Amino acid sequence: MTSEYKIKVLNMGSVTVDKGGMTRGTDCGTELRIPQQAVAIEGNNLKIICDTGVHSVDWVNANVSTVKDCVLKDDESLEGALKHIGWKPEEVDYVINTHLHYDHCGGNYIFKGYKTKFVIQKKEWDFAFNPTPNQEQYYMTDLFNHKAVFPDQILLIDGEIELEDGIVLIPTPGHTKGHQSVLINTEEGVVCFAADASNIYENIDKDIIGNILYDTYSGFKSMEDIRRKAEFIICGHEPRTEKYQTNNFMRIHV
Length: 254
Hints:
It is a single chain. The chain is an alpha/beta fold. The chain has a single domain, classed as Ribonuclease Z/Hydroxyacylglutathione hydrolase-like (Metallo-beta-lactamase, Chain A, 4-Layer Sandwich). Helix content is 19%, strand content 30%. It has 6 helices and 13 strands. The protein has helices spanning 57-63, 78-85, 102-105, 122-129, 201-206, 216-229, and strands at 6-18, 31-43, 46-50, 68-71, 94-96, 117-121, 154-157, 161-164, 167-171, 180-186, 189-195, 232-235, 250-251.
């Protein structure tokens, strides 16, 4: 990877969870306030968004049993976050959905009809329409199907690809069947936007898996793969990662 990119972390609201759901077997019953994080990537004449947050606070609070007290500040809707960083939806070249849970694709619709391509693993696309029973509450197909965006905007991929020079997508199944993470070349080194392959830093640092899973073994192997391929990590829900953070991301210890 030769091209270098700038990264900016976007907070797409926050929720309260039982920490035991993030770190299986530890701290069960301890409440943890977590952000729902996305990233904006710029460089090589490209603008890329990874994940798009939630579509409705009321829907989340009414329908998702594993979270409570969802809050979305003005600059934490996708529209508000883009405005804050000076981007317009029509300027975005790619939206990379790491997976299609409600809190990672809720803002897809704002790019409907623009040049934006939505890059999704085919295994995730198929799984989202026929999830396992323990995952059904996390998928709302109207957030990502042809009601949300035009069919020709959806780019289904199979496995690891170099999307653009310096941007590599790697399968990281476990949390879902078709979860993917994003390797981004920066001046500091390779940063992985892991999303829910490592919900919080403790997952990858202490090799502890979360509770919302399609496959436990794959989840551990995915964290191992991230350790091999990246130097730094942005997790999907790490409270210590700051809104609009641009550097000094958490280092991965091999």
